[in-house]
């Protein structure tokens, strides 16, 4: 099996590590410590890695996981509040390309969610095919609380994977939910009581998916997701990766400051 090279952040931490678990199963570890905060570079590297695994004929299934207590906290607000126009556009592009690459991956993807998955970090979960949650995880879409809307790929994937009531609950309040509510809303399929069970359940589900006929799996996945994928690609082709006014508005940076100060609870 071809092993993609991990990407290095700041010359120290490995952002992405792919490990061969045997039987065609690859574990892809998200490793931008300490909370897998999203950067444009990290997201683009993730998109490239997922696309490569999707093309590898020896890969039968992928497990996404994090070695940290947080699965992914979304965009780093301390960095984001200082973004220039070009940096805002780069982040939008990173979100669009990474979410699209995961959602369109022809291979089965299992998310092993061992901690909070918030804002952009939740799309690693929503873009996966089977989602295993931890009993102490939290899930949320906090974009409204920091004064930004949704780039096209996250928006379309949210609309395709969440029912309208769940969209209202998460996207119009920005408040997180716990694991039981997440299972009730279809965000996760199984809840693991501890981290050992999370590993066991994730590998078990990946093996089930890896045993399925791969060509049929990819074809049916495209039948289910093709219209959403086409809308995302059309919007990107029309310029959605580089919104002329950027991603932020007049409310964004003050809202980020309130979140950072703890005033927005």
Describe this structure in words.
The protein is α/β, with parallel strands linked by helices and 265 residues long. It has a single domain (8-196), classed as 2-enoyl-CoA Hydratase, Chain A, domain 1 (Alpha-Beta Complex). It is built from ten helices and 13 strands. A hairpin with a 2-residue loop joins β3 and β4 (25-30). α3 (85-103) runs parallel beside α5, α3 runs antiparallel to α9 (214-240) and α5 (152-161) packs across α9. 46% of the residues are buried.
Mean pLDDT reading = 94
Oligomer: single chain
**Roughly what percent helix?**
40-55%
Total count of domains: 1
CATH topology type: 2-enoyl-CoA Hydratase, Chain A, domain 1
Rg over CA atoms: 17 Å
Draw up the topology in text.
Elements: E1 8-9, E2 13-14, E3 16-22, E4 25-30, E5 37-38, H1 40-55, E6 61-65, E7 70-72, E8 74-75, H2 77-80, H3 85-103, E9 109-113, E10 116-118, H4 123-126, E11 130-134, E12 139-140, H5 152-161, H6 164-171, H7 179-184, E13 190-192, H8 195-210, H9 214-240, H10 252-261
Summarize this, please?
This protein is of the alpha/beta class. The chain has helices spanning 40-55, 77-80, 85-103, 123-126, 152-161, 164-171, 179-184, 195-210, 214-240, 252-261; strands spanning 8-9, 13-14, 16-22, 25-30, 37-38, 61-65, 70-72, 74-75, 109-113, 116-118, 130-134, 139-140, 190-192.
């Amino acid at each position: 099996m071809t092993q993609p090279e991990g990407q290095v952040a700041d010359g120290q931490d490995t952002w992405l590590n792919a490990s061969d678990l045997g039987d065609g199963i690859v574990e892809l570890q998200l490793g931008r410590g300490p909370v897998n905060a999203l950067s444009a570079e990290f997201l683009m590297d993730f998109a490239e890695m997922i696309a490569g695994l999707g093309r590898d004929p020896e890969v039968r299934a992928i497990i996404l996981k994090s070695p940290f207590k947080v699965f992914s906290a979304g965009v780093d607000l301390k960095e984001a509040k200082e973004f220039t126009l070009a940096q805002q556009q780069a982040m939008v592009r990173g979100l669009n390309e990474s979410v699209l690459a995961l959602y369109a991956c022809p291979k089965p993807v299992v998310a092993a969610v061992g901690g909070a998955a918030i804002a952009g970090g939740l799309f690693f979960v929503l873009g996966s095919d089977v989602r295993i949650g931890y009993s102490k995880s939290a899930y949320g879409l906090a974009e409204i609380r920091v004064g930004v809307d949704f780039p096209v790929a996250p928006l379309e994937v949210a609309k395709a994977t969440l029912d309208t009531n769940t969209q209202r609950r998460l996207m119009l309040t920005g408040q997180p939910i716990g694991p039981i509510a997440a299972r009730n809303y279809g965000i996760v399929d199984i809840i693991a009581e501890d981290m050992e069970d999370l590993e066991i359940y994730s590998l078990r589900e990946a093996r089930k998916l890896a045993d399925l006929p791969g060509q049929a799996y990819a074809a049916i996945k495209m039948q289910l997701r093709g219209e959403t994928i086409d809308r995302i690609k059309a919007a990107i082709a029309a310029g959605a990766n580089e919104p002329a006014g950027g991603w932020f508005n007049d409310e964004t940076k003050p809202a980020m400051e309130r979140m950072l100060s703890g005033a927005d609870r």
